[in-house]
Amino acid sequence: MQTKPDLDEARRVLQEVFGFADFRPGQAEILQAVLDGDDILAIMPTGAGKSLCYQLPALLRPGLTVVVSPLIALMRDQVEQLKQRGVPAAALNSTNSGQDNAMIEAALLKGRYRLVYVAPERFVRADTLSMLRRAGADLLAIDEAHCVSQWGHDFRPEYRALGESLVALGRPQIVAVTATADGPTRAEIMERLFPAEPRQFIRSFDRPNLRLAMQRKHKPVQQILAMIARHKGESGIIYCASRKGVEKLTEILSAQGIFALPYHAGLAPEIRAAHQDMFVRHENVVIVATIAFGMGIDKPDVRFVCHADLPGSIEAYYQEIGRAGRDGLPADTLTLFGEADIRLRERQIEDNDAAPERKRLDRRKLQELIALCETPRCRRQTLLAAFGEQSEPCGNCDICEGRWPLFDGVVAAQKVMSAILRTSGRFFSGHLAHLLIGHATEAIKRHSHDLLPTFGVGREFTLSEWRSIFHQLHALNLIEQDEEDRDRWCLTQGGRAVLRGEAELTLRGEMALPTGRSADIRKSLREIESGAEADYADRDLAQKAFTREPPQISSADLTIHETRLFVALKAERLSLAKAQKQPPYVIFHDAVLVEIARRAPRDEAQLLEIHGIGPAKAARYGEAMLAVVARHEQA
């Protein structure tokens, strides 16, 4: 009788195949549940190791693991990385020739693969299900499981048919994973994908390596160029709300000498594929894209994500910034927003033919996103609170860094709350802002709000500033939407305390403060990177700034001598990647090269001690890496 694999055996395979010394936080508990045969729903942040929760069990169990993945690019990357580690894996998709797919299916029936990746459209076909059942499929992993939810930002109708296909597959064990799912989305995932309630593992949504920043649009092109300048020679993504915006911004950036490529659904498929491939394989490409780009992009060294326009929702924002810093090293995010963005989103919601329930939900989600943009408290606290998670101030966002002017907001808050109460809570920020500055709009006059005592009591602030104050009060949980009536605003207990003058309140002004010495810090880092003679005082200044500003990745925690070795290792990795026509990160992630540069291993045994290098990788690339180290040490 075969014994069930345990965590000790899983840890051995983790070390031998994947090159990791131990599990990441939260992985062991999930892996144990998978090995026990339980159905699983795992919500884990990007970079926390979701894929390992089904890839590792696939190597410990006798059956076949089927992975349903929404994007061909994601399948291709994961299969290639598994092959690099010596794991027999394949993908069935439309980019393969008919002959290739037939050969893969024949090999599956002979038991030659441990994992097979399949698109949802192909998976639900009767012939595919029959073949997979005959091939011994006994574990179904559903990646990006939030795509099943009609309330989600990446809804894929074909995902809803997955649950109906389980009987035809012989009722396999299910492991569904995603990084983005609030309460309603989790409920729908469980309803649609699982025959019975699964075990749930909801990890922290926090990505502490991401610096969060938001700015009102002032001179958006200059704001974006400043972000790119802080990451010269590094990869980044800039999201725009429209195809026209993508094309225009790409032209502007290209004229500035920036290697920028457009990506949107209006481009021919072969052009989109070429641009995505260029972005994945090179280290200095900036992709300017609509939301058509990103899901499933497993490029670990994206050093910044910028939103040129307001994202679609707080879930979309979280998902999109999550494409930065997947290697766990510091990365930068910036979101630009303005009144025009907010009004556009409001119009899109109202003009949509969606059901009233969906419109109410969309309005609530928009308010949560605006509250994040306008919050006077730690961005990360506000973001995590939207997912039901409490946290302390992070020290790694523009609010915690003291980049915004603050003022005593008690009187301003009292005026907003008075306006809410006198209008029965039925009006949103724009209407209340006009009321407070004394602007008698058609709506104001229609409701006789120009006769209220609060009409015109707030002329000390502009319309934009009053909108901001309103959203700050929402972010601080001083006002909220009624649970029974989402179209009505009401005061919370904390808000009433402010209204009565029993509590203090600090609010945030409109414009961010200058970044101080950030330019000097960046200059020091660039000198280290280029090998210039920067003294150690400059280097210490740069290192101390790492908790407040994202570092240039090649200088992270390295001496000048180590940085030069890191640069040489990157050059060798790029050469190997070009020879194999693979992205550089498939060879080694930057974090692995940083560790090689720091330790300077002399032989394969020392190389194997480095996190992320297993026997397969050491056998394939160890000699080349060790040769670079040896040359560097002799120089």
TrEMBL record:
> What is the enzyme's main class?
isomerase
- Substrates-to-products reaction catalysed: Couples ATP hydrolysis with the unwinding of duplex DNA by translocating in the 3'-5' direction
All residue ranges annotated as the Helicase ATP-binding domain in the record: 31-199
* Occurrences of domain HRDC (ranges): 559-635
Q: Does the keyword Calcium apply?
A: no
| Pfam families to which the protein is assigned, alphabetical | DEAD, Helicase_C, HRDC, RecQ_Zn_bind, RQC
Q: What is its EC number?
A: 5.6.2.4
Enumerate the UniProt keywords alphabetically: ATP-binding, DNA damage, DNA recombination, DNA repair, DNA-binding, Helicase, Hydrolase, Isomerase, Metal-binding, Nucleotide-binding, Zinc
Pinpoint the Helicase C-terminal domain residues. 220-372
Q: Which GO terms describe its molecular function?
A: 3'-5' DNA helicase activity; ATP binding; DNA binding; four-way junction helicase activity; hydrolase activity; metal ion binding
Q: Name one GO biological process term.
A: DNA repair
Family label: Belongs to the helicase family. RecQ subfamily.
**Name under which the protein is recorded:** DNA helicase RecQ
Provide the species name. Answer: Beijerinckia indica subsp. indica (strain ATCC 9039 / DSM 1715 / NCIMB 8712)
